[in-house]
Amino acid sequence: GLAIGFGGGLMLGLGMAGAIQWLEHLQWDWIQRISMQAEGSIRKLLHGCNAWHVLSLSLAAGAGEELLFRGWLQESLCSQWSSFGAVGVVASIVISSMVFGMAHPLSLGYVVIASLLGVVLGVAFWWTGNLLLVIIAHATYDAVLMLTFVRQMSAEISS
Prior knowledge:
Structural class: mainly alpha
Distance between the termini: 46 Å
Shape: globular
Strand content: under 5%
Number of strands: 0
Helix content: over 70%
Protein backbone atom coordinates (compact mmCIF):
# COMPACT_ATOMS: atom_id res chain seq x y z
CA GLY A 1 0.00 0.00 0.00
CA LEU A 2 1.01 3.53 0.84
CA ALA A 3 4.00 2.66 3.04
CA ILE A 4 5.52 0.42 0.36
CA GLY A 5 4.78 3.04 -2.29
CA PHE A 6 6.40 5.90 -0.41
CA GLY A 7 9.22 3.98 1.28
CA GLY A 8 10.07 1.76 -1.66
CA GLY A 9 9.77 4.65 -4.09
CA LEU A 10 12.04 6.85 -2.01
CA MET A 11 14.67 4.10 -1.75
CA LEU A 12 14.49 3.24 -5.46
CA GLY A 13 14.65 6.90 -6.51
CA LEU A 14 17.63 7.59 -4.25
CA GLY A 15 19.33 4.47 -5.61
CA MET A 16 18.78 5.53 -9.23
CA ALA A 17 20.02 9.09 -8.56
CA GLY A 18 23.01 7.73 -6.66
CA ALA A 19 23.89 5.41 -9.53
CA ILE A 20 23.80 8.28 -12.03
CA GLN A 21 25.90 10.53 -9.79
CA TRP A 22 28.37 7.68 -9.25
CA LEU A 23 28.67 7.20 -13.03
CA GLU A 24 29.37 10.92 -13.46
CA HIS A 25 32.16 10.79 -10.87
CA LEU A 26 33.90 8.01 -12.81
CA GLN A 27 34.89 10.65 -15.40
CA TRP A 28 34.22 8.31 -18.34
CA ASP A 29 34.21 10.26 -21.60
CA TRP A 30 30.86 8.98 -22.82
CA ILE A 31 29.14 9.81 -19.52
CA GLN A 32 30.74 13.28 -19.51
CA ARG A 33 29.46 13.88 -23.08
CA ILE A 34 25.92 12.88 -22.09
CA SER A 35 26.07 15.20 -19.08
CA MET A 36 27.40 18.13 -21.11
CA GLN A 37 24.81 17.65 -23.87
CA ALA A 38 21.96 17.56 -21.38
CA GLU A 39 23.30 20.47 -19.33
CA GLY A 40 22.17 23.24 -21.73
CA SER A 41 18.56 22.08 -21.79
CA ILE A 42 18.49 21.56 -18.05
CA ARG A 43 19.99 25.00 -17.39
CA LYS A 44 17.20 26.60 -19.45
CA LEU A 45 14.54 24.57 -17.64
CA LEU A 46 15.85 25.35 -14.17
CA HIS A 47 16.87 28.99 -14.69
CA GLY A 48 15.39 31.00 -11.82
CA CYS A 49 13.98 27.94 -10.05
CA ASN A 50 14.14 27.48 -6.31
CA ALA A 51 13.78 24.26 -4.31
CA TRP A 52 9.96 24.48 -4.25
CA HIS A 53 9.83 24.86 -8.03
CA VAL A 54 12.10 21.84 -8.44
CA LEU A 55 10.07 19.70 -6.03
CA SER A 56 6.81 20.66 -7.77
CA LEU A 57 8.27 19.96 -11.21
CA SER A 58 9.68 16.64 -10.00
CA LEU A 59 6.37 15.50 -8.55
CA ALA A 60 4.43 16.58 -11.65
CA ALA A 61 6.87 14.83 -14.00
CA GLY A 62 6.99 11.71 -11.83
CA ALA A 63 3.22 11.44 -11.62
CA GLY A 64 2.45 12.34 -15.22
CA GLU A 65 5.13 10.24 -16.86
CA GLU A 66 4.59 7.17 -14.69
CA LEU A 67 0.83 7.28 -15.18
CA LEU A 68 1.44 7.41 -18.93
CA PHE A 69 4.38 5.05 -19.41
CA ARG A 70 3.86 2.46 -16.66
CA GLY A 71 0.21 2.87 -15.70
CA TRP A 72 -1.14 3.06 -19.23
CA LEU A 73 1.39 1.96 -21.90
CA GLN A 74 3.13 -0.86 -20.04
CA GLU A 75 -0.14 -2.13 -18.57
CA SER A 76 -1.88 -1.99 -21.96
CA LEU A 77 0.93 -3.88 -23.68
CA CYS A 78 1.08 -6.46 -20.85
CA SER A 79 -2.65 -6.98 -21.16
CA GLN A 80 -2.51 -7.27 -24.97
CA TRP A 81 0.37 -9.73 -24.85
CA SER A 82 -0.65 -11.74 -21.78
CA SER A 83 -0.95 -14.90 -23.88
CA PHE A 84 2.81 -14.72 -24.53
CA GLY A 85 3.64 -15.10 -20.83
CA ALA A 86 7.06 -13.84 -19.74
CA VAL A 87 7.95 -12.78 -23.29
CA GLY A 88 4.93 -10.47 -23.32
CA VAL A 89 5.90 -8.97 -19.97
CA VAL A 90 9.52 -8.39 -21.04
CA ALA A 91 8.42 -6.92 -24.38
CA SER A 92 5.95 -4.58 -22.67
CA ILE A 93 8.63 -3.33 -20.25
CA VAL A 94 11.25 -2.90 -22.98
CA ILE A 95 8.92 -1.14 -25.44
CA SER A 96 7.39 1.19 -22.86
CA SER A 97 10.90 1.97 -21.59
CA MET A 98 12.16 2.77 -25.08
CA VAL A 99 9.21 5.12 -25.65
CA PHE A 100 9.92 6.65 -22.23
CA GLY A 101 13.56 7.18 -23.25
CA MET A 102 12.55 8.80 -26.53
CA ALA A 103 10.38 11.23 -24.57
CA HIS A 104 13.64 12.53 -23.02
CA PRO A 105 15.55 13.67 -26.14
CA LEU A 106 18.21 15.83 -24.44
CA SER A 107 20.81 13.80 -26.37
CA LEU A 108 21.06 10.32 -27.86
CA GLY A 109 23.02 9.18 -24.82
CA TYR A 110 20.39 10.56 -22.48
CA VAL A 111 17.67 8.71 -24.42
CA VAL A 112 19.61 5.48 -23.76
CA ILE A 113 20.08 6.27 -20.05
CA ALA A 114 16.41 7.26 -19.67
CA SER A 115 15.40 4.02 -21.41
CA LEU A 116 17.51 2.00 -18.97
CA LEU A 117 15.99 3.87 -16.03
CA GLY A 118 12.60 3.13 -17.62
CA VAL A 119 13.43 -0.58 -17.48
CA VAL A 120 14.22 -0.25 -13.75
CA LEU A 121 10.91 1.56 -13.17
CA GLY A 122 9.05 -0.89 -15.40
CA VAL A 123 10.38 -3.93 -13.56
CA ALA A 124 9.60 -2.29 -10.20
CA PHE A 125 6.04 -1.62 -11.32
CA TRP A 126 5.59 -5.13 -12.73
CA TRP A 127 7.08 -6.71 -9.60
CA THR A 128 5.07 -4.70 -7.06
CA GLY A 129 1.99 -3.62 -9.03
CA ASN A 130 2.36 -0.36 -7.09
CA LEU A 131 2.13 2.71 -9.32
CA LEU A 132 2.76 5.02 -6.35
CA LEU A 133 6.15 3.37 -5.85
CA VAL A 134 7.35 4.26 -9.36
CA ILE A 135 5.81 7.75 -9.18
CA ILE A 136 7.71 8.47 -5.94
CA ALA A 137 10.89 6.84 -7.33
CA HIS A 138 10.74 8.97 -10.48
CA ALA A 139 9.96 12.16 -8.54
CA THR A 140 12.77 11.44 -6.06
CA TYR A 141 15.27 10.78 -8.86
CA ASP A 142 14.32 14.01 -10.64
CA ALA A 143 14.34 16.04 -7.42
CA VAL A 144 17.77 14.83 -6.28
CA LEU A 145 19.42 15.47 -9.64
CA MET A 146 17.68 18.80 -10.26
CA LEU A 147 18.33 20.09 -6.73
CA THR A 148 21.99 19.13 -7.15
CA PHE A 149 22.07 21.02 -10.44
CA VAL A 150 20.35 24.11 -8.99
CA ARG A 151 22.87 24.08 -6.13
CA GLN A 152 25.74 23.93 -8.64
CA MET A 153 24.24 26.79 -10.65
CA SER A 154 23.88 28.90 -7.48
CA ALA A 155 27.50 28.19 -6.54
CA GLU A 156 28.64 29.29 -10.02
CA ILE A 157 26.70 32.55 -9.70
CA SER A 158 28.11 33.19 -6.21
CA SER A 159 31.72 32.73 -7.27
